[in-house]
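Reopening this one. Same input as before:
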Amino acid sequence: MYAQINEQFAAATRQFADTAARINRLTLENAEAIVGLQLAAIEERTSATFAFLGEAAQVRDFDGAKALWPKGAQVARENVERALTTGQDVVGRMVKANEAVAQIAKGQFEAVARNANETVKQAQEQFQQAATSAGKATEQAAANAQNASNGQKNGK
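Same output, byte for byte:
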């Protein structure tokens, strides 16, 4: 009996460890992709900003500064747009990763429920077999007792 309990516990522990490893791998892949997206966005926007600052450093008069204002506004707008786009991509990836984790968890719950139902079904079958055997043994004992009683009455 203890071996069966230990075996079930070991199987459940292995299943939990496998599931945790899958979830961790999925989470790390997602984190890697998110960091990659953010670094690419930072690199792109930093290059554009430094290019603009390089142009701004070459301005020598007021007319050059007036011409630079629209470029500065455009760089700022592109920086904000890229930050928002990257943020949306990050949220989208996180939602997909969370959905994948939820599917894994759902699968585990369903597997546990199936195993529990199978165990209950086996226990019911064993109980029915034991009850049937006990009933037959009781009938046998009653028949033996009846026979013994009839034998004692006939022997008197």
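So the earlier flakiness isn't reproducible anymore. For the record, Helices lie at 2-57, 62-155.
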